[in-house]
Design a protein that fits this description.
The protein has a domain at about 15-145 and about 200-230: Beta Polymerase, domain 2, CATH 3.30.460. Strand 9 (about 150-155) and strand 10 (about 160-165) form a beta hairpin. It is globular. It contains nine helices and eleven strands. With about 240 residues, it is an alpha+beta fold. The strands form two sheets. A seven-stranded mixed beta sheet has the order 7-2-3-6-5-4-11. The chain has a four-stranded antiparallel beta sheet with strand order 1-10-9-8. Helix 6 packs across helix 7 (about 180-195) and helix 8 crosses helix 9. It is about 40% helix and about 20% strand.
Length: about 240
């Protein structure tokens, strides 16, 4: 996939053609189907990124996030019950300071993220940064403001969206996506470093085999790595 260039001193108004609205509708209908199988009881999954904002393209992922710790076996039981069987799972901890997360890749363009360790405001604001919406908002055709990998704020309007670089406009961006200026600056600095040095590896990445449970793999990791134990049992 082509690397997105960070934009500076950028402002533009984008009007969506009919083909874009059709693609957005198709992507969102697929997202709704996926969210609906989980949207029961205490579950409230979100879709985040371009599908939440509206600035989709053909290769846009359907990224589902849970913002609460949920027993993984419940997630996998629901997936299996609804015909999802050949999915790929991996445990990832991007840096020693980040939460431990389970990524479930249902297909090339569909994935689910489940936190395995305690989450905080910083974790939630990471997804607010890019824009997120729930099932009811999807069904109501709501689009959320969010910031893309170009460090451009996407602000939806009736015709499409407005976009403005957040570099030099950090306060405006923080207000639009309703997160702290600290998170704005932290994400900005991460993406600027990535532009300069390239993408670096993650701190911890463990693939889960088809015959293994997430819980047993996580337990083995905790036995071997004290930082994983501390994350899992942090209060």
């Amino acid at each position: 996939m082509k690397k997105e260039k960070i934009l500076r001193d950028h402002y533009s108004t984008i009007t969506y053609p009919k083909t874009h609205w059709s693609l957005l509708k198709e992507k969102r209908e697929n997202a709704i189907k996926l969210l609906e199988i989980f949207n029961k009881g205490d579950f409230e999954p979100y879709v985040h990124g371009s599908i939440a904002r509206g600035d989709v393209h053909k290769a846009s992922d359907i990224d589902i996030i849970f913002l609460a710790q949920i027993p993984v076996f419940q997630i996998e039981f629901i997936l299996n019950k609804n015909g999802f069987e050949n999915y790929f799972r991996e445990i990832i901890m991007a840096t020693p300071l980040d939460a431990i997360k389970l990524y479930i890749h249902l297909s090339e363009l569909e994935s689910i993220t489940v936190p395995l360790s305690k989450i905080d405001k910083k974790f939630i604001e990471f997804y607010d940064f890019g824009g997120k919406i729930n099932l009811n908002q999807l069904k109501s055709d709501i689009r959320a403001a969010g910031i893309d990998k170009r460090l451009v704020l996407i602000k939806p309007n009736l015709q499409g969206h407005e976009e403005i670089s957040i570099i030099g406009n950090e306060g405006i961006a923080a207000k639009e996506v309703d997160i702290s200026i600290n998170t704005i600056n932290e994400r900005k600095n991460v993406l600027l470093r990535r532009e300069k040095y390239g993408r670096t590896g993650v701190f911890l990445k463990k693939e889960i085999q088809i015959n293994e449970s997430t819980e047993e793999v996580l337990k083995k990791l905790a036995n071997r790595k004290s930082i994983v134990r501390k994350k899992l049992f942090k209060r």
